[in-house]
């Protein structure tokens, strides 16, 4: 949803009715994950995508029907569904899409409240009934300290609120099943819980040309990018216009102050021992998802020796992606940034890093949790 957030907010502010089509389940191979959103407004304008182009034409028609007053509904597309051949799903999998309208002032106000929370990076979960013994499209918004909306019964609200907070803590999105009154281990009501969490962070250390290119591609991939360098002349916003934040500080001091969680990626591009060693000692104490370090193989060997002298054990050293990036034959800062981004994606999803043409089986596989 973040990719179309400005467009959604502007339409809500103008009171323009719109329909949201949300991927709620994926079976097999598909180009978009659960939570992907496509919007169609009252004027017929489309924002976003649910399948990368495979089924958008049909989803568009369903969205127009819902905007015209049809009830919310879940539509399935897949190679086993005769309808799918007419709309061209060729990705080898099945997707289920919830389509519902936001037309009244009350509906638009509720959507606006959710979008405002997402825009402010406030963690929030949205629970929506898909099918069963509750009204399809009924919606409940859950925060750590508050809720809004109802799914139709007090018991169902309580159970979904509890589960939604647990999923939100883990950044997970998916379908949960309940009894009509919220009973566990029953399958009478399907509820889709979409977790909206702040974007993951990319911390880039070293204000060099490679850092500028890495910051650009990090922003493109959806990270909140911070560039940090101890040199005031180099750590300036003008040199890194796509970064969300440029910090002038000693790298290890900044990292220890800001911290890193299990979704954070760290790119150390300084290749200077006086910066690298204390920074990497601090980085390896965090649960960061990825720690990439630039430098030649000789620099890498020297760095490992220094880190061992600093008391870093072999298990921690094995976490380092060093030298940073995949072997793409990169030469320029921009090509190197692509190499780094490719390795980050590989770590995130558990890919092989090999050409797809050399492999068989599903192209889109579940891999690791982002």
What does this structure look like?
It is a single chain. The chain has 370 residues and is an alpha/beta fold. The protein folds into 3 domains: 1-120, no CATH class; 121-198, no CATH class; 201-349, NAD(P)-binding Rossmann-like Domain (Rossmann fold, 3-Layer(aba) Sandwich), CATH 3.40.50.720. It is 34% helix and 24% strand. It contains 11 helices and 16 strands. Strands 13-12-11-14-15-16 form a 6-stranded parallel β-sheet, sandwiched between helices. It has a 5-stranded antiparallel β-sheet with strand order 3-2-1-5-4. Helix 1 (5-13) runs antiparallel to helix 4 and helix 6 packs across helix 11. The two termini are 16 Å apart. The relative contact order is 0.09. The model is unreliable at 79-89 (pLDDT under 50).
Separate helix tally: 11
Assign the structural class, choosing from mainly alpha, mainly beta, alpha/beta, alpha+beta, or little secondary structure.
alpha/beta
> Roughly what fraction of the amino acids lie in strands?
15-25%
Q: What radius of gyration results from the CA coordinates?
A: 23 Å
**At the third CATH level, what is the topology name of the largest domain?**
Rossmann fold
Query: Separation of termini?
Result: 16 Å
Strand order in the sheet with the most strands: 13-12-11-14-15-16
Mean pLDDT: 91
Low-confidence stretches: 79-89
Global morphology: elongated
Overall domain count? 3
The CATH C-level name of the largest domain is Alpha Beta
The CATH homologous superfamily of the largest domain is named NAD(P)-binding Rossmann-like Domain
**Would you identify the CATH architecture of the largest domain?**
3-Layer(aba) Sandwich
Q: Biggest sheet, open or closed, and with what strands and sense?
A: 6 strands, parallel
> H/E element string?
HEEEHEHEHEEEHEEEHEEHEHEHHEH
Helical amount among residues, as a percent range? 25-40%
The total beta strand count reads: 16
